[in-house]
Each structure stands twice: as structure tokens, then as C-alpha cells.
Fold this protein.
Amino acid sequence: MARELILHIGVTKTGSTSIQHSVAQLRDQLAARQVFYPMPLGRIDHHPLAAVFAGAAGASGSGLSTRLGSFRDSFKAELDSMPSGTTRCIITSEHFSVLPRRRQVQALADFLMPYFDSARVIVYLRRQDEHVASAYNQYLRNGVAVEPALFREGADGNQRRRYLNYKALLHRFAAAFGARSIRPRIFARDALAAAGGDVVTDFLQAAGIDVPAPETPGLRERNLSINLEGQAILLAALKRRAAQPDADSEPDAQWRILCDWVTQVLPGRGWRPTRDEARNFIEHFAETNEAVRRAYFPQRATLFSTDFSNFPETETRPTPETLFENALTLVLHATAAHVSREFWHQMTLFRAHKRAGDRDGMRSALERAIRLDPNKIEAKLQLAKLFFEDGKFSMARDHAQAALLIRPGLRAAAKIKQAAERSLAARL
């Protein structure tokens, strides 16, 4: 039975994460249709495989080299164990499109193609100015302290322009996997219209897979945008971190938490180039974009839209007033998150003291939890129950009543209150 490789290579900022999470969620449904989705070491994406062929392993014997070698072995084991009836296999990582040299792409093909009779290389192309604007959030999340800009001097700017040369990208993969295997798609509203504007649906259609895209919002909303003020806060924080004597260049847990908070609290449209900047930037790719259009999209008048009206006419920057307001919002969120975390820490301590039979420790943990957040009823209920068990019926009644004020009709609180009142009446 013929077996086809569906190789999704990105590019970045074209919904790749949504595709990966959705395909992983559909894994059982795909398997029922003889479509295999490998998940080596439990990963839902195949980024480490791209790192293997990028030569990211470094010196032989390094920790990273060992981990990547382990992933490659696990990936090979997954391919070796493909069910005999498999007709297609999906492999996906937007990092494949970042492989800069033909020999790297050829090494990837040499590793994969012995398992398949043909390949279908699906790649989404996004207008270069829009790609760079969208990627700025990721720069910040990755701990790169750079000012927002389309044009950059030096090696970084040259690398960016090479990466966004779609003609060269398609040639690298065509040379390794065959020209007939290349299936570029346009990541733009008009091009995705037949799929309802949804890149996951479009990918499944491009792969020839008749499975509806999952509708679970939590799996579809990935890499959310950050507003101008949030980006400015992250950039300022990165500069402050870099100025510290013991600065660590790699993002750590503290940085990831800050990025998560900024993303949650300050969503919205971030930095955008001006219309003139975007037009000038696109001119750098006019020749290569036209070559891609002629080769793959002859029905389109231009490879990408020439409408720049979604960009501002003049540069937009956060004002001191909006920056202060957004920073204050972030601080209040961080404070609330800390209080919530401490509340549940005290509840965890309460359960630990309960297992140990330490009633004083139980009471102290519950009282601290209530001081942290008087509006949560969990601690009030447990403290009311504890006081009742200790024969302190008036205090049990009062804490049960406090819980009822927060949530009227709560059965557990009403029962404790009634029992406490009966016990108090019996004492008279």
C-alpha cells in the first residue's frame, strides 16, 4: 500500500501551533482513517527533529546533543512502528522552514523518505511585513531585547531577509523532496476564505484529510497578541534583566510567568510598521515573490495583497499615561495572582495538618487563608466544621453564616449553622 508523507514546515507566525494542537487532538480520528501522527516522547510537535538537522546538537557528548539524539531515536522508533495499513503520516514543525541550507533539508529528506513512497510538503506563506510585525511578540517572549522594526542592520537583518525569501525556501525543499511535492498556501484572509478563514481547516483540506477541525477554543487560540504597552513593559523588563550583574541570557520561569501575565492582562494589537515602512520592506522581496507567484499561483494577480490600510499612517508608540495605566493593571493582576496562590498554599497546608492530626495547625492555616481572601468559602466552611468538632458552636455558627452571606443557600454551610444552633440551644 502506497504511503504518503504530509510534511508541514510552517512558516512561523502562520497558525502552526494551532495546527499541531488540533492534529494531536484528532489523533485517534486520524488513526481510524489510516493517518498516523507520531508523538515521540509525548510531544505534540516535531521541533526537536528540526533542531537535529539544523546541527543544533553542538559538540558531541553535550547535554543538548544527547537529548536531540534521544528524540531522533524515539522518532525513528515511532516511524518503524507505523501501523501496516497507514496511508499517510503527518510531521509538523515550523522550524523546518528555518533550515537555511540545502544539505540540512536533504538530510531531513534522507531520514524521512525511506518510510514513504511520496511526499506532500505544505507550507504557508505570509506577507513579509505582516510576518515581522506578528513575530515581534515572539522575540520578546524568547527574551530578545530588540526595538520593534522591519529593517535591522547587520547579521540579524540579513538573516531575516534570507528567511523571508520564499523562492529560496521552496527551492531548498523542492530539491530534497521533489518539485511536485511542494504545496505552498497563502496565509491571508482571502486565500483562507474557502476554509472559513481557519488555517486548521485549510491544512486538513490541503492534506486531503476529511476530518472536521476541532472546535475547542483552548486548543485553537495560541500565541495571543500583546498590546503596545505590554510590549513596552516586556522590553523594559528585558533591558533591566540584562543590566543585572548575574544576568542570564536564557528565559527562566520568572520570565515565562511575566510573559503569561502580560499576554493575559494586556492583549490587543501591538507594534505595527507604518504603511510606507511596510511598502518599502515588501519591495525587497518583489522579485522573489513574483517568481513564487508565477511558479505556484499564476491565477493570482500578485502573490500577496497590495493593501496596506491595516497599518497606521504614522508611527504609534505608547504614551506615558497609557503605559502607566497598563503597568498598574498588570501589578494589580500580579498581586491578585499572588494572593490566590498563597490562599491555595494555606489550604494545602491545612490538608497536610489534617493528615497529621494537628488541629492547631489546621486552624492556623484556615485563618491565614481567610485573611488572604475573605470571599472564598472553602476556608470558612472548613473552619466552621473544625470549630463544631471542637465544641466551639458559636464560632462554628458565625463562620457558617459568613459562608452563607457569600453564597446564600449553600447546603453544607446551612447544615453546620443549624447543627451549631441546636447545640447552643441544648446548653441553655
